[in-house]
Design goal:
By secondary structure, the chain is of the alpha/beta class. The chain is 31% helix and 27% strand. It has helices at residues 10-20, 60-76, 105-116, 147-157, 171-181, 224-235, 254-260, 282-290, and strands spanning 2-4, 23-24, 28-31, 37-40, 49-53, 81-86, 119-123, 141-144, 161-165, 185-194, 197-202, 212-220, 240-248, 265-269, 277-279. Helix 2 runs parallel beside helix 3 and helix 4 crosses helix 5 (171-181). Bound molecules: ribose-5-phosphate.
């Protein structure tokens, strides 16, 4: 097995190689003077399984393009199989045509991967309107979840905690994590009255007063969703408020926005490399790669 990366997730790729006793050989990726992509394998992949480890953040477009070029090149060089490990799989949120004429990006992304890789392993993909990866992938597509690792982290580092999912879809993280450690959880229902007037309501009311509130979501992008939930928790008397995301995209001024909304700390997994990473997902991927 040869483990490689197009640049993102290099830390996970190196750990995987060490744990699986496999060769780690990152790709050379550059641009020709006119901007065309240049890509090169730096070891002989003929007859080997190539495991391409690449999260789709930062630079989702480039990541997708690099992955397709790398997979096609590996096959062309005689690789036996190409497995993509994408700890964060981008493009999943555009899972329907919200407005006439829009591209359903998740389908296009999946079509490109279906044609170029043999297997996909990903962690907590954004499954909202799709209930399973099978709805868009024809290749074996394995969904892993960081929930048990997140639950373990919470148990070790917090006390008097209550878990909140900031919107309806987040129940698959908030409620599942809470069950692992037997703490109370609820999800919020958001009603938008205008661009400046949003009201959030708990689906099952839980006591917030003097509690350590942990707001859990799959993705923290601009931070807006969690900031709204944090403001509500603050109003209800939370002692401390933490934001916990599987995928910390943390774009624009997300950290600043969260801080201003009363968030005391941000914790993420290393699905996307970021200084807020506290939870290592490598063990999940090791187990998945061991299963043939
Ligand atoms: C959306 O459905 C996701 O689960 C997240 O809630 C969302 O992507 C977070 O985005 P932002 O941080 O920009 O509010």
């Amino acid at each position: 097995m040869i483990i490689t990366t197009c640049g993102n997730s290099a830390q996970i790729a190196q750990k995987l190689a060490k744990k699986l006793n496999a060769k780690f050989s990152p790709l050379t990726i550059a641009s020709f003077p006119d901007g065309d992509l240049y890509l090169k394998f730096n070891c002989d992949v003929k007859g080997h399984e190539v495991v391409l480890v690449q999260s789709f953040q930062p630079h989702p477009d480039q990541s997708l393009f690099d992955v397709v070029f790398a997979a096609e090149t590996a096959k062309d060089l005689g690789a036996k199989k190409v497995t993509l490990v994408a700890p964060y799989l981008g493009y999943m949120r555009q899972d329907k045509r919200f407005n006439a004429g829009e591209c359903i990006s998740s389908r296009v992304m999946a079509k490109l991967l279906n044609n170029s890789i043999d297997k996909l392993i990903t962690i907590d993909p954004h499954l909202h309107r799709y209930k399973s990866l099978k709805e868009i992938f024809k290749i074996p597509a394995i969904k892993l979840s960081a929930n048990p690792l997140i639950a373990e982290y919470i148990k070790k580092h917090f006390s008097k905690e209550v878990i909140i999912g900031p919107d309806w879809e987040s129940f698959q993280w908030a409620e599942d994590i809470a069950k692992h450690i037997n703490v109370q959880a609820t999800v919020l229902k958001k009603t938008r009255f205008s661009s400046r007037h949003v009201e959030v309501k708990m689906i099952h009311p839980v006591i917030i007063q003097d509690r350590n509130v942990i707001i859990v979501d799959d993705i923290i992008s601009t931070g807006h969703t969690i900031a709204e939930a944090a403001k509500d928790a603050k109003k209800k008397g939370a002692k401390n408020i933490y934001a916990l995301g599987v995928h910390g995209l943390l774009v624009e001024n997300a950290l600043d926005k969260l801080r201003k909304a009363g968030v005391n700390g941000v914790v993420t997994t290393n699905c996307i490399e970021h200084p807020s990473n506290r939870i290592d997902v490598t063990p999940l991927i090791v187990e998945a790669l061991k299963k043939r």
